[in-house]
Fold:
Amino acid sequence: MQALYQTLNHKYPVWAVSQAGHCLPPDSMEMMEDTDIIELEDVFGLNGQIEHKLAFLKQYVPRNIKLVLIGHSIGCYIILEMMKRDPDLQVLKSLLLFPTIERMALSPQGKLMTPVLCKLRYAMYVPVYFLSFLPESIKASMVRLVLRGLQSLDESSIPASVTLFSVDCVANAMYLGSQEMVQVMDRDNPTIKKNLDKIIFYYGSNDQWCPEQYYEDIKKDFPEGDIRLCERGIRHAFVLNASKEVASMITDWLHADLAIL
Structure:
């Protein structure tokens, strides 16, 4: 987000909304404090995450503000749902990066992760619980060790990764993942068709969550859409080492749209 704000020359506000329950709140706050959201039956599930983003816009962003929605992975599915549930949102453009918007459990990575997320996730909580007692410096060192093979590792990703040592965050993230495997199956073609002129799709060329075949399929169904295939070798988890590159690319895409504001 910092890289995007900088490449936009600090001219436009950039809001980042995390998945609810996936990061540790300040010590002065509880994990669940928003009274509008906690009324939902399943706050940390997929539906709750969608309503969480809509609630943020409702509470903090005036209705007449033009929006550029940028989603990554399951965030792309959430954006499509937001546009469907609130068609009056003033969406200038929606950028769907490495979009997991269909057949998640049938993707190569989905086939591997579905049993883990749906049946074995509780077994992960015990080791995470014991690791959570380690000093923050050791946690950060462990993250660096795991990510040592990446070139140009973005240091800002280290603190975010350290939250994976929180049982609450891991439990909420894996619970959401289990719902994704079950619920994200059919692509929402009606919503895509209705908003096609506002959407840019960006697929990875070697993405195990949304393989190239998914790109070919959506390209066939929407030949007039702005649907792109990465030619830069950017990985699905681009925030780890290519955030500046992606931010620069996004700025180029938005140049014409922002110029008319």
